[in-house]
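Dear colleagues,

I hope this message finds you well. In preparation for our joint manuscript, I am sending the phosphoribosylaminoimidazole carboxylase (Aphanomyces astaci) sequence together with its predicted structure, so that both groups work from identical material. I would be grateful if you could confirm receipt.
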Amino acid sequence: MDDWNALEYDVLEDFAKLDGQRAARTGFPEVVYSEGKTTDQVTTILVAMKKTNEIVLATRVSADVAALVKAHADLTVLLFRPENMTIIIIQDIHYFPTARVLSLHPKPTTPATSQVVCVLCAGTSDLPVAEEAAVTLELAGVHVQRIYDVGVAGLHRLLRNRQAIQDADAIIVVAGMDGALPGVVGGLTSKPIVAVPTSVG
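The corresponding structure tokens are as follows:
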């Protein structure tokens, strides 16, 4: 990008600047990181983003905040700006509790691509991070193969899924205590691997 001044953003009150051109630049819209934000802030940001994005996604959303956002944003929301007033219809609100992801987007029925991303995690404690990745991919129209609880302490569990790992186009490996897992998976495939450390353990 040669001229950064040409990039525009939407100012929401005094707490957020929305990057409305993110999807055009990267293929996926800006994602709302909700931890530390108030329910009103999360709701306002999501509704404003729905104005220009088909996919609207918030991560690290607790069940309590998700319920409040649903109550605030249910069906019809009146979005006020000094220059105009817009009515936005919010109908497809989905909460994925394990992933702690909230989306304002119809659940995709079929993947938009034939490519497969394999999401692995070492243990059950790593599930929230693994599911956050998996749900985000699915909302982006990517087919996901989940392989969970395959830490190297029980190597046979991983090796039994070797074919699925080798068939995948890319692999995401989520591990906390089992930091060796990404390296072991790297020995089973030549496909790209994204290693995601967690704070578990």
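For the figure legend, we might mention the following. The CA atoms of residues 124 and 149 lie 6 Å apart. Confidence is low (pLDDT under 50) at residues 75-89.

With kind regards,
E.M.
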